[in-house]
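User: I'll paste a sequence; please echo it back and then give the predicted structure.

Assistant: Echoing your sequence first, then the prediction.
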Amino acid sequence: MRGKRVRIALAVVLALVMAVVATVHFGEDAITEAVIRAKVTEEQDRSLLEDKEHIQVLLCGTGSPEISAARAQACTLVAAGGKMFLFDAGEGATKSLADSDVPVTELDRVFLTHFHSDHFNGLATLVSESWIWGRKAPLPVWGPVGTEEVVTNLGAAYALDNGYREEHMGPQAENAAAAQAAPNEIEIPEGAESVRVYDEGGITIDARLVDHEPVEPAFGYVMTYRGKKVFVSGDTKVTPRNLPAMQDADLVVHEAYAAHLVRRALPIMREEGLSYEADVAERTIPYHADTIELAKQAQQAHVKRLALTHLTPWPDGLLPRRQFVAGMSDHYAGEITLGKDGLLIVV
């Protein structure tokens, strides 16, 4: 440990010496210009658009309504066939995508799973920022009935800001329509469990009903491409209803609730005078996906890889992350990935 600290100290000293030498040799102005030039010529990562062989899944938001250290709330980017689709846009989604160098101006569309705020309260920022930085057309947003109301009201909240930018910046005025999203409401026929919402270029996306009462309807989404299948669950409890979506999936991105940890925490919270917080936590247990039950269902459905997101309670640190998935491998033989913001999975 002491040797490691010495090596770190030497590296810092060497870096400082090199900086001083460079400044003396090249001059401060030259160094400043080089730094600026490097920054402005940084390129976004286009690999998500250029890879036509795989489905790539970026966990851009693994948080929940709980205040945590997560980079963002619910946000999953799925890229295939030169297209990028965003599933939910919770708070922090735009910054998280930017941190992963995703070219947000080239998103094909957004799919919302339901209208709990942590799944859409970053949408207005995404629409605004992608317009400011060059999107040329309204961003298509698809979701359950209610999508038009949500999108229209978010657009109204940004009306003053959009007006200022149109007046001040020429390109924004030329593409004023792109300051808005284009809402599209998905209705699943009576008696059906799913409906196809995208079928282009070998990519299919189906919206499927999931159980998240009292939120109705709530959707998960199934994508297929080049013989691969990915299911993004949205918020749902573990239920037989989800088996067709999960069946033989190459990857399931599923919300996860470590109920074993929450149940142990409840009496301690009440002992510490946190009865209100304990009551809130207790009420959330029945309509989220218990990690152990989820593992059992993934095994039953022959899921190849299970990626956990919407993590509750937030596993902040190595030990909490181990505790979060404790017991899951006893019931599921496939690969378990405990999500973290910025994680890219190639299918």
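The CA atoms of residues 55 and 80 lie 5 Å apart. The chain has a mean pLDDT of 90.
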